[in-house]
Specification:
alpha+beta, single chain, six-stranded mixed beta sheet, 20 strands
């Protein structure tokens, strides 16, 4: 639809009116109301809920029951990992909550939950079609964009659906009719209830396109990637989470929705969505040779991809814009990374890095890049995301912390971007994925941490009843229960090299002098992770194990999930479980094909795991360097690699 250009005075008046609408929507919450929340059903229906100070989870459910005309006693209100019990005082204003069935196995005859009245839907939908959710402290760059798009919606400038991709997406335009933002509703993701392209079949909160990323939660990750791109180093476009209403949004047949009838008779559908600034570009990386891509741009995007454990960095989501103007010579280009919905998985997956074989990825990092990496603080980043995006799950934050530690240690050791990416990537052998070098280190770190944790628990138990312990031990040998997360490896016709992992621990006690000598010979840069406890000595658990020789490794016939049995440690002290009225919703995550999962470790085990992980990294990095040296020297016989 075309639009008429306004005079500067009219434009300023419209912007001022829009500013007042934003301010009024916020002040209404402060005057006479305690806070406002957005509740989304697992079929995508979005409801506004105004809370008084006396309201709690039970009163909210009663309001929802009236609005939905459906009993909500067997439903749960969740925010990310947390199932809300009763108290709502710690929930941030404008937070999006998910109303889900308590029972994971939903009957096909379950009635759809859709509002029957206007009790919960406020008039502000008609006054302000876009509202910012959470993270208002970091939205300064996007507020003008949101105002411009909202102004265009009021003027009748219709958005344009995006035909490409598996999920629903829409180009929203500004008042001039130009593409200004791309909006992706969370209930139109692949497999979500209102996916417009036929990829349906799951409810919000269930495993999605990748089992470690749930349906309806890719938009949160889009915002997280923007928030983690400090100083806009990787050039991620500004991205925010919004509640947005428009008739263009898709609703599948049989799925109910909350529709608001406008003054013109149209029915606007409210959605929770990610909104990202549209960046004009010339093509994407799949349409252009990589030789013109700046080394610094590839490095900075790669640094971000490593930190967020991006599982979907293909050429199509790297936009390319030609550099023109004074001072630009030759075929210089600018790279813009987009589509970060499949980053920050809940467990380690097989990442995909398009840049891993580009020549730029093998160029050593610059001093500025090394300084940027050295200044990264994964714990601070995780705390920031907990504050700005409280619906991000703790398992995803642990992946962020782990990946950032890996990046910092690898660069301190002297690895380039390509080497780091290769250590994170799996190899496909036969009909199965083999664990990556990173995953092997994590598996061993988990084994060591679990054994130490179990040993500590047994020691504490023995102190409580030492006499009984001594009496029992006289007649019976107390068997040590094997770790639930311990893997046995096998190798056809020969003993697997990874069997040496168990022997190394025994040799430590027998040959302390030799261990110290070896540690001295294998000296390396000190760990840069100052937030972890000091490491007294270098672990030799991986000594003699070739992590890069993955083609000869076979996992036993047991399940791939490393932690199929949960540890006995409680998560009550976990940083992500600080609120006593919240319960864990991790049980809702179904088993996935993964070698390493981090969600079920208690706070103490998680801390031990990180310590062991950091201890094992230097040896893994040496093996990587050694293997590369051997590969380059293969034509020469008798080549060896010693340190």
């Amino acid at each position: 639809m075309s639009c008429n250009l306004e005079s500067p005075v009219q434009t300023q008046m419209a912007v001022s009116a829009l500013d007042r609408a934003f301010a009024n929507s916020r002040s209404e919450t402060r005057v006479g109301r305690w806070k406002r929340l957005f509740v989304q059903t697992d079929t995508g229906c979005v409801l506004d809920v105004e809370l008084d100070r006396g309201d709690n989870v039970h009163t909210v459910k009663r309001k929802l029951q009236v609005a939905l005309n459906f009993p909500t006693e067997e439903s749960s209100l969740t925010l990310g990992d947390h199932v809300l019990k009763n108290d709502l005082s710690s929930i941030r204003n404008d937070s999006p909550l998910l109303l889900t069935k308590t029972f994971m196995h939903r009957s096909s005859s379950t009635p759809c939950m859709s509002p029957t009245g206007n009790d919960l839907q406020q008039q502000r939908d008609r006054g302000c079609p876009i509202e910012l959710l959470v993270c208002p402290s970091r939205c300064s760059r996007t507020r003008p964009l949101v105002k411009d798009v909202a102004k265009a919606i009021r003027k009748g400038v219709d958005p344009v659906p995006v035909n490409s991709g598996l999920g629903g997406a829409y180009y929203f335009r500004n008042s001039k009719g130009e593409n200004a933002a791309i909006v992706k509703p969370n209930d139109e993701e692949p497999f979500a209830p209102n996916n417009p392209k036929g990829f349906i079949g799951k409810s919000l909160g269930q495993p999605g396109l990748k089992r470690s990323v749930r349906v309806g939660e890719t938009g949160y990750r889009e915002v997280a990637a923007y928030l983690l791109d400090h100083h806009n180093s990787a050039n991620v476009p500004p991205t925010i989470l919004v509640k947005i209403s428009h008739p263009v949004f898709h609703i599948n047949e049989g799925v109910c929705a909350n529709k608001n009838v406008g003054e013109d008779g149209t029915q606007a559908v409210s959605k929770i969505a990610s909104l990202q600034q549209f960046i004009p570009h010339d093509f994407d990386a799949s349409d252009h040779g990589t030789s013109s891509f700046p080394v610094s741009a590839v490095h900075r995007i790669g640094i971000l991809d490593i930190r967020i454990f991006n599982t979907d960095r293909h050429a199509g989501n790297l936009l390319v814009r030609k550099q023109t103007g004074a001072g630009n010579f030759g075929n210089q280009t600018e790279l813009i990374p987009i589509d970060h919905g499949l980053c920050l998985p809940e467990c380690l997956e097989d990442p995909y890095f398009e840049w891993i074989h580009w020549p730029q990825a093998s160029v050593p990092f610059s001093e500025d890049e090394l300084e940027y990496i050295a200044n990264l603080d994964p714990v601070k980043d995780a705390d920031m995301l907990r504050m700005e995006l409280p619906m991000i799950r703790e398992a995803s934050l642990r992946v962020l912390i782990l990946s950032t530690i890996f990046l910092k240690e690898a660069t301190a050791f002297g690895l380039c971007l390509a080497e780091i990416g290769e250590m994170m990537s799996r190899e496909f052998t036969g009909m199965e994925d083999q664990p990556s070098e990173l995953e092997f280190v994590c598996m061993e770190a988990r084994r060591l941490a679990t054994e130490q944790d179990d040993s500590s628990t047994e020691h504490d138990s023995a102190d409580e009843d030492l006499t009984q312990f001594e009496l029992d031990s006289e007649d019976h040998e107390i068997p040590k229960e094997p770790s639930a997360h311990h893997f046995e490896f096998k190798r056809q016709h020969s003993r697997n090299q990874l069997s040496k992992l168990d022997e190394a621990d025994e040799e430590e006690e027998e040959d302390d002098i030799e261990v110290e000598s070896d540690a001295g010979k294998l000296a390396c840069p000190k760990p840069v992770n100052k937030w972890l406890a000091n490491i007294s000595k270098l672990s030799t658990s991986l000594k003699g194990v070739s992590l890069t020789d993955k083609t000869s490794r076979q996992l036993s016939a047991g399940p791939k999930v490393v932690d199929s049995v949960k540890t006995s440690k409680s998560n009550s002290n976990d940083t992500g479980s600080q609120l006593c009225n919240w319960g864990s919703a991790n049980d809702m995550l179904p088993p996935s094909v993964s070698f390493v999962k981090l969600a079920d470790m208690g706070a103490e085990t998680w801390g031990l795991f990180l310590e062991k992980f950091q201890e094992l990294l230097p040896e893994a990095f040496r093996m990587r360097k050694c293997s590369m040296t051997v590969q380059r020297a293969k034509p020469r016989l008798g080549t060896s690699c010693q340190f």
